[in-house]
């Protein structure tokens, strides 16, 4: 492509470009909205705003279904054909999916101001765009010949689970049935996000490590992946039951043990030699920590007869921000650099942003783990954590987003 290529044509030249750009902008928007809401709710700045729905349910939707899917789909649009040695995703599919989802998110924000009807319309468009993506990826999977389909097939199951969770949220907006909201939340985390991020981690972390670490032995036990996926599914099912919280530790501790083994075997400590690799290992290290927190919380609840439940939402945020969001940041950085013709090396600025991002996780979970020690400082730390995340992610977006509408620096197509 020559230097006169318009930005929109560059956005359409590779499937990850539009999705990553939309995800970057959506991440800034949802974090800005959430920080403003928290600051007003706790009386730190401004006053509590009136929204078309409860802010916590809007926050859950915007993060689970409105932020992560853009990056997940952009990544899978790029990697599915490579994993399966299959056909490329055609532009009509990845562009249609991206546009529908982006318009849907904008309508959802308008619905926060006006009411659930417009939010439901936005959710429907988001679901339509997600449907286009699943159909395109399924076609690649079904047409692949003589390839190892295990990761791709498992990812497809997780995507379909995410579709069901998104559909449940849409139905909740229309019917206001609590059971639909409960399913949407559990499915989004335990049937969709955690499985698909674990699948990508299992596939890519040892592969990337083997490319840059000397004398590296690639270990990728599939039985352990299936066990971890089963634990995630059972956790989600138990959370849907009112009386099953006491038994979550039965699956959380095995998942944590598997993750600890993989983290050490894959070379967590050795990975710090290469920052672009280290960010993936650090992100994965949040998985066993979060599951240990979940397990201890459940076990204490079990042994105390349901009277104690420590840690509050710390396990959830260690998982969602520490593992999911950190992994998205690491993978998106790698894909952006590699597919723009730039060297696969994380500069100092991006590395410091990632470290700041880890600080945001610590700030968010500290008040829930140490409520008595921090006392009235808790709400302020919630806002500070959100502000830290907003600043780091906004700076990351400012650095990487322009790459998506610009040509590759090496002059190659894509």
Written account of the structure:
It is built from 15 helices and no strands. It has about 425 residues and is an all-alpha fold. Helix 4 (about 70-85) packs parallel to helix 6 and helix 8 (about 180-210) crosses helix 11. The model has no long low-confidence stretch (mean pLDDT about 95).
List keywords for this structure.
mainly alpha; 414 residues; 15 helices; globular
Number of strands: 0
Biggest sheet overview: none
Q: How would you spell out the order of helices and strands?
A: HHHHHHHHHHHHHHH
Distance between the termini: 9 Å
Short description:
With 414 residues, this protein is an all-alpha fold. It has helices at residues 7-11, 15-41, 55-64, 68-84, 91-114, 116-143, 150-175, 178-212, 222-239, 249-265, 275-303, 314-338, 348-369, 371-374, 378-404.
Secondary structure: elements and pairs:
Layout (H helix, E strand, L loop, with lengths): L6 H5 L3 H27 L13 H10 L3 H17 L6 H24 L1 H28 L6 H26 L2 H35 L9 H18 L9 H17 L9 H29 L10 H25 L9 H22 L1 H4 L3 H27 L10
């Amino acid at each position: 492509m020559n230097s006169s290529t318009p930005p929109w044509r560059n956005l359409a030249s590779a499937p990850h470009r539009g999705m990553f750009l939309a995800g970057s902008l959506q991440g800034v928007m949802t974090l800005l909205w959430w920080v403003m809401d928290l600051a007003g709710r706790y009386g730190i700045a401004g006053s509590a705003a009136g929204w078309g729905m409860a802010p916590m349910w809007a926050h859950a939707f915007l993060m689970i279904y409105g932020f992560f899917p853009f990056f997940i789909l952009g990544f899978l649009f790029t990697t599915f054909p490579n994993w399966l040695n299959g056909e490329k995703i055609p532009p009509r599919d990845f562009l249609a999916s991206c546009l529908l989802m982006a318009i849907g998110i904008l309508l959802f924000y308008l619905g926060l101001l006006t009411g659930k009807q417009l939010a439901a319309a936005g959710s429907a468009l988001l679901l339509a765009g997600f449907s286009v993506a699943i159909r395109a990826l399924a076609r690649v999977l079904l047409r692949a010949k003589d390839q190892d389909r295990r990761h791709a097939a498992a990812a497809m199951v997780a995507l379909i689970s995410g579709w069901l969770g998104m559909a449940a949220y849409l139905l909740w907006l229309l019917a206001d049935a609590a059971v639909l909201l409960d399913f949407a939340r559990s499915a989004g985390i335990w049937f969709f996000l955690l499985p698909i991020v674990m699948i990508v981690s299992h596939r890519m972390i040892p592969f990337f490590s083997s490319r840059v670490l000397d004398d590296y032995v690639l270990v990728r036990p599939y039985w352990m992946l299936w066990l971890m996926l089963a634990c995630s599914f059972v956790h989600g099912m138990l959370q849907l039951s009112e009386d099953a919280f006491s038994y979550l530790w039965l699956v959380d501790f095995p998942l944590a043990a598997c993750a600890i083994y993989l983290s050490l075997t894959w070379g967590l400590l050795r990975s710090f030699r290469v920052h672009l690799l280290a960010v993936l290992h650090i992100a994965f290290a949040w998985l066993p920590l979060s599951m240990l927190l979940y397990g201890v919380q459940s076990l204490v609840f079990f042994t105390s007869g349901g009277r104690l439940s420590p840690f509050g939402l710390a396990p959830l945020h260690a998982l969602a921000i520490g593992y999911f969001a950190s992994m998205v940041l690491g993978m998106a950085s790698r894909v952006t650099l590699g597919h723009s013709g730039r060297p696969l090396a994380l500069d100092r600025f991006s590395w410091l942003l990632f470290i700041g991002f880890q600080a945001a996780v610590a700030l968010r979970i500290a008040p829930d783990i140490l409520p008595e020690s921090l006392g009235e400082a808790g709400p302020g730390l919630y806002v500070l954590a959100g502000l830290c995340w907003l600043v780091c992610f906004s700076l990351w977006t400012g650095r990487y987003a322009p790459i998506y509408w610009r040509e590759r620096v090496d002059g190659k197509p894509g």
